[in-house]
Amino acid sequence: MFIRTKQGLIRRFFHLNNMTIGIIGFGSIGERHFNNIRKLYPKCNLVIFTKRKDVSKQDNVLFFSSSRNFFKSKIDIFFITNETYKHIPTLLQCLRYVPKGIFMEKPLSHTTKDLNVVEKIMKRQKTVFFVGYCLQFYAPFIELKTMVQTGQIGDVIFIRASVGQDLRTWR
Description:
alpha/beta
């Protein structure tokens, strides 16, 4: 559900088969994005920055363990899927290259430091930016939001929710 919705959004702006996509961070989430991109856009070029040593070489895919070499590539769209504490510094580094788009896994950051700087740069560059929070498209949450907005369930005072799943298999 999420990948189709997200891809629908991205498709309005780009023809991904003709572009180079850079993925920063290649843990379970980065690898999932990689597999989805390869499946949906088999002709696009992929450039991956990872510390992992267990990745296999593939056609149209370059793997880098050095950020310097990674950023030498002409990347059109970045996927930021590294550790949360690295999100904002990585985002600022990506914005130096004036990409067409940036997709970042949630959360945006663990702190509000530098968010105003990010906002100013993005407005100036008009970079398409999307934070991957797939539950915003989850039908039960959309219905719940509608029920709250229409007053159907009254004023919400407090919600506590817990979810526990293995991220490698949850989607």
